[in-house]
Amino acid sequence: MCGAELHTRTQAAWAVLAEVPDPEVPAISVCDLGIVRDVEMAHDGQLTVVLTPTYSGCPATEVITESVLAALDAAGLGPALVRMQRAPAWTTDWISPAGRDKLRAYGIAPPGPVGGEVRVPMHLVGGLAQSAARSVDVRLGSLGAAPASALACPRCDSTNTERLSAFGSTACKALYRCLSCREPFEHFKPI
Amino acid sequence: MSATTLTSAVVAGAQVPSIGVPADASVQYLLRLADTMLILTQRLSEWCGHAPVLEEDIALTNMALDLIGQARAVLTLAGQRVADVTGGAVLDEDQLAFLRDERDYRNPTLVELPNGLAGRPDFAFTVLRNLVVSTWLLAMWQHLADSSNEELAGIAGKAVKEARYHQQHAADWVVRLGDGTAESARRTQQALDRLWRYVPELFEDDAVDDAAVESGLGPASSQLKAACEAALLAVLAEAQLTVPAPSTFRSTGRRGVHSEHMGFLLAEMQHLPRSFPGGAW
């Protein structure tokens, strides 16, 4: 294949990947989620998609691999390969702006910047031990108290919200509720 | 991938021979780490469907999922390392997880203890243990992010972020229970009194640690002690708990000499893969 043809195939692959939904949050694509690191093209036209797993134990990893391969096959770009690449570790900072909008429209509060939350996570080990005790909300427990940087409800935009649990229906989400519109919602945790 | 796969794999009365693991220090080092997560996962999964409230049921199983993902990655690495040092076949994650005998598991005794006291599952004991283990793992991953082994460093880069959430969750609960009602304080203190004697094992060095430092694979256990102790004592103080006096007791799980609870845990964990060798669905 000539260079231009390979380039076209790579572009076509990216276009296909932009339509492959994340199995756990189907409102966004694997590209929106920021887990597609690269699409490599060998000289013979063989495609390799490089993916970064979101969480170590994410049960969707295998499904994502299968969906990606099936979509490329269906578009006539297969048979392709998927390679998992751990480093650098995936971060929610890689979720695209469009992905964030889609999350919000789907009812999931998108993550803020990693490290941008006021009290989560607690850095007990690694140099901040002195302030560690203070970062624990003692009486209420952080389980019921909203973080100081109150999260906006994806339905009504109110920041009068509270966290119910740090862990939601999937490892990547926390469970919240809005005290204004009374609706529960999920928050994609910054990690 | 289908029902017939399982059926065809089943051999009536089949015996699956146990696999041994080489004494090589790097293999042992990786197994200590992986087994800590694997065995704690087994204990946490016992809460599935039984936790005090639904949110905590979900939280504990979510954390178990993170831990099993981390354990799989490190077991896979250990299995490749086995082939490197023996020149033999690679052992896969399932073989290492399910086909070793008790003496070949390298987890500290702390993680194999039952979820409660005197046969009763106890949430205070569970979150206290989670605090100790997540604090230890967080410190461990922070060091391992600089491991000379690129794969291990990559696993650590991901896991360190997950461990922070685990530690946060456990610390929140320990403070809430320890500084809570008279009953929750009593039970949390009782849990601390029970588990504190198992903590020193996490920071004891031996030849495996020396070799890991030498090769740059990872830190010696003692290198994690100062940061972990500072973090643990800060949370325990905030929780109004009394730190028990040091004990002369030393647990020995990381050397393969386990408590009486380990055999029962493994019997449950290994039953299916041992009874249906090669089973898949």
Describe the structure.
The complex is a heterodimer of chains A (191) and B (281). Chain A has 2 domains: 3-90, GMP Synthetase, Chain A, domain 3; 109-188, no CATH class. Chain A has 5 helices and 7 strands, in the order ααββαβαβαβββ. Chain A has helices at residues 3-17, 30-33, 61-74, 97-106, 129-132, and strands at residues 36-41, 47-51, 81-84, 108-109, 161-165, 173-178, 184-188. Chain A has a 4-stranded mixed β-sheet. A 3-stranded mixed β-sheet of chain A has the order 1-2-3. Chain B has a two-stranded antiparallel ribbon with strand order 1-2. The N and C termini of chain B lie close together (5 Å). Chain B is globular. By secondary structure, chain B is mainly α. Chain B has a single domain, classed as Ferritin, CATH 1.20.1260.10. Chain B is 60% helix and 1% strand. The chains are: A alpha/beta (191), B mainly alpha (281).
Q: Which descriptors would you attach to this protein?
A:
heterodimer; A: 191 residues; alpha/beta; GMP Synthetase, Chain A, domain 3; 2 domains; 4-stranded mixed sheet; 3-stranded mixed sheet; 5 helices; B: 281 residues; mainly alpha; Ferritin; two-stranded antiparallel sheet; 10 helices; 2 strands; 60% helix; 1% strand; globular; disordered N terminus; 1,2-phenylacetyl-CoA epoxidase subunit PaaC (chain B)
In what range is the share of β-strand residues of chain B? under 5%
Low-confidence stretches of chain A: 117-148
Instruction: Name the CATH homologous superfamily of the largest domain in chain A.
Output: Fe-S cluster assembly (FSCA)
Question: How are the strands of the biggest sheet of chain A laid out side by side?
Answer: 4-7-6-5
Brief description of this entry?
Chain A is α/β, with parallel strands linked by helices.
